[in-house]
Amino acid sequence: xxxxxxxxxxxxxxxxxxxxxxxxxxxxxxxxxxxxxxxxxxxxxxxxxxxxxxxxxxxxxxxxxxxxxxxxxxxxxxxxxxxxxx
Length: 86
Hints:
Blueprint: H1 5-15, E1 19-22, H2 24-36, H3 41-58, E2 66-69, H4 71-81
Parallel strand pairs: 1-2
Helix pairs in contact: 1-3, 2-3, 3-4
């Protein structure tokens, strides 16, 4: 879709000179959590925002030029921020 949420975050990272790579398993994880919490499209956005919030704020000021969103990272950050979803 034109306004694909992940695409928006990839673009935001690119604006800061950071290449974002996402493991395919992360997409399934996000959808599974949205289904589990009975969330719709806004819920998907909320999950993605919570997974990437820390990286979006910390990466630009670091020397890192690549961010790899792994399933392990997604699970860890989802658990930390689960209360913010839904």
